Amino acid sequence: MTDPVSRRTAITLSAGFVLGSAADLHADEPPKKVEPPKPNPGPVEAAFERDYPAPGFKPSWKNPQLNRLLVQDFVILAHSDLDMTKKLVEKYPAVLNGTMDWGNGDWESGLGGASHMGRHDIVEFLLEKGARIDIFCATMMGQLDAVRAFLTLQPKLIDATGPHGIFNLHFHAQLARDGGKVLDYLQSVKKVELKPNPFLKKPADAKKPG
Questions:
Q1: 43-55 pLDDT, tens per residue?
Q2: Which of the listed residues 6, 44, 80, 113 has the most CB atoms within 10 Å of its CB?
């Protein structure tokens, strides 16, 4: 006589049957298609239609515009790579004052990027080549007379911010190698709370090569 199936054995057999049946059901289903990651579409020009009379002057467009990818790479590299910045300027001189719109009018030049990174070496190279200096660059380079002249011409520049809308004059002044003269002057014009500057090299770091 066959022994009756125990409760534990019955549960085990039932579970195995259910799992096996489920596996059989899934085996009949086609494998799910894995969607590849969507590529970055890159910059897209905003839609625009004139709602005002067109200007009378018509540009001739005799020369091609600078390639946007070239300008993008130049601005990025000018933040921190002196060698590549030199190579691009030497090969494509017109890129020197090229500016990139990162979106919604967030304009940045190679000089602007190097300035808010505190890269005096890159800034000096770009200025020697004829880059157009602005108040942010003058501030970072410790040019107190130039900063005073800018603010005399337009006092509201004390509240101006550079690329990305987050780097103000005080931020750039923290990166100057002038013993704090420009920063003291800016604080006398408008005192602001100074936050730690992530691009400010400590004395010990400044002695390290690179």
A1: 889 999 999 999 9
A2: 113
